């Protein structure tokens, strides 16, 4: 009996000294959201998903797509004049007035911090002339970013049966948006003031993403945790009664940045689910560079050029996602494929090959190999593979031989 008691006591003490963490044991977190996904921002690799391809209402997370298109198509300092239709937009808004003059940048802050529906409409019209034309642009750009099951109808996400996305698609759209530095700057701004305009007093905006700043605590998988999340870099929340609470979140630790998306959850659940997902990702995964921008890859031949060879370098850095506590990073390898025929002129930065990236025996990505320097078209002997420098040397040697031969003949004739 005493022996059994000692064993039970030891088990209890061991268990009580453990930190409860699903990530450390590779156990996937329990999520309240009806759909969710976690991806590596650098690689786009899916680390965890729950119904990630289910079509859902995105609510105001739609505005991530809207903001990116604005940043890609408009000058931030441009002044926008508000029309009557925009001023009548419902839901969350900054109460834009007909005839009001306000800059694109100020509307962007209203869009992403206040989640202003009227700002979304104003910006959509400024980009495309009308909401339907802007929606077409949204859908085309979403596909370019990797969205597979998305159809946008509005720039703000107000309920519409034909306006939907998926957790996975929204993560890929968010990944694209986070590639824009101004977007990153806005979504991490805690407070912003829109100065008084010709139709309104100054407007004060506050970021609703509590992962950036809140001093409160929240229960995450049965454990009380700080709501402020270390390394948070964004992104955007959303809510309608039809969509429920939604949040696209991101955080960076070391060289790894993760993006999580949760759709149709509760007010607390959107933060708890996001923390659980991000915890899981950081505990279990990291990304490593497979090739770095500017990395030397050797030389390749150039025909008809001033030089016979040109150095190849990687156009950009490419990452691979690997388990955090395993040695699988050693399985990452690259293979350089040179273009079969490279003819001068060659311009610096011109693609002259491809770097294939493998994890084990599986091809997982490609990066362009480009010329490190320019190579001009060569002289008359370049077709023989003789560089201009070598041509000059040969020409000089030939000239010396001619001079010596002429001198020899001259001396010979002189002695006859």
Automatic annotation (TrEMBL):
Enzyme group, top EC level?
hydrolase
SMART domains in the cross-refs:
PBP5_C
**The Peptidase S11 D-Ala-D-Ala carboxypeptidase A C-terminal domain, residue ranges:** 285-377
Quote the InterPro entries the UniProt record gives: Beta-lactam/transpept-like, Peniciliin-bd_prot_C_sf, Peptidase_S11, Peptidase_S11_C, Peptidase_S11_C_sf, Peptidase_S11_N
* SUPFAM superfamilies in alphabetical order: beta-lactamase/transpeptidase-like (SSF56601), Penicillin-binding protein associated domain (SSF69189)
- Reaction catalysis annotation: Preferential cleavage: (Ac)2-L-Lys-D-Ala-|-D-Ala. Also transpeptidation of peptidyl-alanyl moieties that are N-acyl substituents of D-alanine
What biological function has been recorded for the protein in this entry?
Removes C-terminal D-alanyl residues from sugar-peptide cell wall precursors.
The protein's name is: serine-type D-Ala-D-Ala carboxypeptidase
Can you name the source organism? Aminipila luticellarii
